[in-house]
Specification:
The complex is a heterodimer of chains A (about 120) and B (about 120).
Chain A: E1 3-5, E2 10-14, E3 19-21, E4 24-26, E5 33-39, E6 46-52, E7 60-61, E8 64-69, E9 74-79, E10 88-98, E11 101-106, E12 110-115
Parallel strand pairs in A: 2-12
Antiparallel strand pairs in A: 1-4, 3-9, 5-6, 5-10, 7-8, 8-9, 10-11, 10-12
Chain B: E1 4-7, E2 10-13, E3 18-25, E4 31-37, E5 44-50, E6 53-57, E7 64-70, E8 73-79, E9 87-94, E10 106-107, E11 111-115
The chains are: A mainly beta (about 120), B mainly beta (about 120).
Chain lengths: ~120, ~120
Amino acid sequence: AQTVTQSQPEMSVQEAETVTLSCTYDTSENNYYLFWYKQPPSRQMILVIRQEAYKQQNATENRFSVNFQKAAKSFSLKISDSQLGDTAMYFCAFMKSTPGTYKYIFGTGTRLKVLA
Amino acid sequence: DTEVTQTPKHLVMGMTNKKSLKCEQHMGHRAMYWYKQKAKKPPELMFVYSYEKLSINESVPSRFSPECPNSSLLNLHLHALQPEDSALYLCASSPRVGTNSNQPQHFGDGTRLSIL
């Protein structure tokens, strides 16, 4: 069974600094997809960044980038130039879909607070 | 602005009541999902609809009954719920559910459900 682990329940970072959120997962699959979602307080969950497991190149979206280490089953999120609006709960997610089965598993989340 | 709309935003009901949660999207997505999210926990997948047909039921109790009347709407009918069913219920959609599909999910704001 697939599992997703986020070992940092809470983190804080000074505005304009860089922070890295960790995520590890366990799977026997070779092809799958990984996502980071952001859920601000009392607001909807939105996609931050995604990574296809078959791609070696790390995904980047503006200030957000990932360090994907497939062999180590690690998928960390780096936020550069942190902004107050980045304060949110961040969930790492694993997705694998095959005919008849569908797995979309979220980690337990990391609550990030950006300090002014 | 959220592209997935959920109503109501809040719902308080007794254990003997029957109520329905509604979800609507007009992005042309053919996959829709229901999640349950307890406080400070990650979302847990409940149901997956693909092309208006139920494709995944993650062993959800029968007091939760999903319905997909058309490609834009997804309902969750509630009956005889228990206090432990109090949670945030999230609806999501994606272009499709398919083999090796990597589409992220678009989430609604959720319905916060309280069972008395």
